[in-house]
Design brief:
single chain, 259 residues, seven-stranded mixed beta sheet, 15% strand
Amino acid sequence: MNQAERRLFLIKAFLDELPDGASVQIPEKPDEQRKLLRGLINIRAAGLPSAEILRVQDEYLRERNAERGIVHLDSLMQIRPHIFLWQGDITALACDAIVNAANSQMTGCWAPNHLCIDNCIHTFAGVQLRYECDRLMEAQGCPEPTGSAKITKSYNLPCKYVIHTVGPIANGSPTAAHRDQLAACYRSCYDLAKNQGLKSIAFCCISTGVFGFPQKQAAEIAIATVSDLIEADSCPLNVVFNVFLDEDARIYSKLLASG
């Protein structure tokens, strides 16, 4: 199969799982097909499809991710010892672990084609990621506490692992407890990566999206917490601060340059 054939195969397979899937008109344009496929992945219940569907999905996503571009850690500029800053899509990073800003249910974003990082990571990893997260949460038996972290496989992403953490919901006015919880997210992810024997980790801007943590305050906490961890570590991780928005890039660049 080529990519167009794989895409149509997957769309039809995931539509067949829906009660009203037969009534959905499959668009002809590739971009619209990609949007439909992404939406189907986003709303798909946790569970593994047949081995054939998984094989086609993995082939499709690996080629799709390669087409979108893969960024390797050794191509990034080091801003401080063991600290890198990179603006772009975190799902393109080929490092040991990327951090997902998850919600407390930990099974990804269910809104079709939403552009949050949780949605992007689950989309381009594949349906296996939601299934693994669902198994972890069922075993835990309760929502994920704010400030903690869990690690999963990355499946079709170029990184090796995904570390999921739940940031505080600040709604624009963080309290001292929110600031402590945000720092705990960075410590939990760093420590988990170290305990797994990893060498590098890429952090997104935890809690600064719909969770409403002001960008500059969040960046100050992120940089201070990670800097303390690196300084105290005899064999520190290489840490990438991944930003997507221009404003976050400006904030991180200024703070890291001033340190």
